[in-house]
Structures are given as structure tokens and as C-alpha cells.
Write a structure and sequence with these properties.
mainly alpha, three-stranded antiparallel sheet, 9 strands, globular, binds uridine-diphosphate-N-acetylglucosamine, binds magnesium ion
Length: about 425
Amino acid sequence: MKQIEDRPISVIDHFDRFTIVFDISISIIGGLIVHQLIPMLKEKFIKAQLWGYDLNKRNSREVKVAESQGVIAAGIFLVLMFIMIAVVFAEHLHPEGVFPNHKFVEYLAALLSICCMVLLGFADDVLDLRWSVKLLLPLFASLPLLLVYFANYHSTTIILPKPVRPYLGQQWNLGILYYVYMSMVAVFCTNAINILAGVNGLEVGQSIVIACSILVFNLIELQGANSEEHLFSLYFMIPFIACTIPVLIRNWCPAEIFVGDTLCYFAGMTFAVVGIIGHFSKTMLLFFIPQIINFLLSVPQLFKFIPCPRHRLPRLDPDVNKLNPSIVEFKKKDLKLLGWLMLRFFSITKFIRYREFTNNDNEIMISTTNFTIINTVLCWCGPLHEETLSRILMLIQIVFGSLLTFFIRYYLVTFFYDS
Ligand code: UD1
Ligand code: MG
């Protein structure tokens, strides 16, 4: 309690305020540039064979939709962040000032990790990499960040919640495990957004909701003791939101462009970076509650206990122009015990719907809806128009990702931690 009373009301000085205003100004310009660039460049992407069919449209095979447009947002974002370096560190540039080398390295490492991930995401869009490779890419991209964390902080201790302290102690030093945890955060954030995808506007929409939540969280926390770390996060979130809004406008139903894996990886890595450097990775993960549920639900298919088709996105019923859950069919005898248990568990909890039938060769077959929360929503309230489905998924993100997190972080947490 004492710690809260001792906190300075605000440690943001005039220079920080100027930097925020500057950040907002160039972000608006950057956003407008992205808005202009997308229509100018999308034909070039199509010519370079970077396009896909919008699978949930009646005329899906007639129109080529430009893919990987997230790379435009990421490119402009990186340019804005390079400009911001000069401004953020400008006050330390006079000869008598002490230049904060550790902060500078942190900033550069964060950008390097994001840059690597954008490159790898674009490579994925061009080469269509295998899932095992996709899972590993963020691990390498997060290395610069982990090294800087090692050099600057070195702290690998976690404070345990109050109820377990009498048994397990006040805090634990996780050592190397803490670094494993941080790299897992990077792997999770990047892939979790990419597997909650397939409906127009969803990938970029969820990224913007998460970014806005982080921004609000940073603004609240700026009043506290660790304001420098939250300022750092703010400098990243403002341009991120500005550069991705134009992508959302054009990716919203009916999609004029696709964002590609580039945007999913770019967004995921940006969130991981600010969460790790800003020391709020646990709160940041709470903003991913819908993605965590979708990942847990996807485990049976991702790890091949149940067959995973190339696309798990919903299936269009062209007669009524509405989406139904997509289905995967396989022989019951191919299902191992663990696969069967998972199928039963998610069926009892109503996340999926399955049925058994006999095929022409008299074999027992299983037909199940794919294991994603997109299909779950359709199982519960479908069939739905694609735009309605996108809106419901955005609402889920806002309620279960953002509002619930703020409730946990500012109310429930007082039962588990001192401040
Ligand atoms: C992930 C999902 C896959 C889902 C796909 C949709 C897993 C394991 N993988 O794969 O199930 O089908 O994303 O993005 O969960 N598309 C649309 N409408 C959209 C978005 C995408 O039709 O609103 C189609 C387009 O044909 C587009 C393609 O999906 O070209 C992009 O798929 P891609 O991002 O390469 O799929 P993955 O990320 O590998
Ligand atoms: Mg994808």
C-alpha cells in the first residue's frame, strides 16, 4: 500500500508530452500514406502473383484479391519508428548530456525483432511455409530482444500470488525458464493471430482492438512508477494503430485486399516486444484471452490428433449468402485415443459439433466442425452473414479480451497481489 502512496502523480515531463504529440502527428501522416499506397500498389501485388480468392463470396473464383497488404502498413510503421528514434533521444544529444545507451539498444532491438518478423511473414506469404517452420520463425526473431533483456535487466524473478505465498514463498527466480517463457510469448502472439483468421477484417480487426487496449493500459499506467516503460510502449502503439486502420478499412467485408501472414506476424511481434520490454507480458497475454481459447481449441488439429485441412475458415451457403461451420471428415478407426478424448471433450463443452455415419465402403466415418472459435460461434448462432460474424468476433475480442482484462488487472488482482 505504501508503494502506491509514494508514487509520483506523473513523471511525464514537457519533452515526453512533445514526443507523444509528435508521434501522433507523424502517425496520422503515416496512416494517410498507407491509405493512399494500398490502392496504388495492390495491382502490382497481383501481378507478382501475391493474390488469393475470397473463399466466402458467391463469385469467389472470379476476383483476384491482393494478398500481403500488411507489408505496406509494416513498412510505413518502420519508417515512422526510425523517425521517432531521433525525437525520443533528441534531448540527450547535447554534448554535456549522458546518452542512455541501454534504452537506445532496447529500442533498436525491439525494431530489429519486428523487422525480422515482417520479413519472415512476407517470406511465408510468398513461399507458403509449413506449420512447423511457422512456429519456429518468431523464436529466432525474438532473440535480439532476449539478449537485450539479458544485458539490461537480468531479472528473472516472479512475485507469487498472495494465496500461495505461505506454501511456495514470496517470489521465485525462474532463471533460464524466464527466457523460455519470453520466447514462447513471441511465438504465441504471432501465431495466435494467424490462426484466428479467415473472415474478412478479423486478423487486422483483432490486432487493432488489442493495440487500443494496450494503449489505454499504457495511458493508465503512465501515472505510476514505471512510466518510462509505458511511454516506450505508447511510442510503438500509436503508429501501429494509425498504420493498420487503413488496412482494416479495405479488408473489412467485402474485402478489397487481404492482410497476409505479414500483418499477423508484424502485429504479434509488436505486441510481444512492448509486453516484454514494458514488463507487462502477463497483462498483455490477458488481452489475448480469445486467442488463447482459440489456440487451446485448435491444439487437436494443430498437433494432428484430428486431421487439419489447409483452410478451416467457415463454408458459404451460396443460396442464402450465409456462413456455416466448415467440416472435416475422416475414418473413425484412424482416430487415436487422445484424439477421441479431445473430440468428446470439445463436443460436450459445445465448442464443436460432430456426427458419425457409414460411408459406401461400410466404414464408420466422423464428420466434425473445425476446431476454431469462428466455427464455434457459427455452431451456436449460425448461419450468419460474413460481416455479422466479423462483428460478433470483434465484440468477443472487446468483451473477453479487453474489458475482462481491465477487470482482472484493476479489480481481481488486488486479491492476489499487494498493488
Ligand atoms: C490460417 C488458418 C486457416 C485459415 C486461414 C485463413 C489454421 C491452422 N490456419 O492459415 O485455417 O483458413 O488462416 O486466412 O488455423 N481468406 C479468405 N477470406 C479472408 C481471409 C483469408 O478467403 O477473410 C483466404 C484467401 O484465399 C487468402 C487465404 O485465406 O488468400 C490466406 O490464407 P493464409 O493466411 O495463407 O492461411 P494460413 O495463415 O496458413
Ligand atoms: Mg494467415
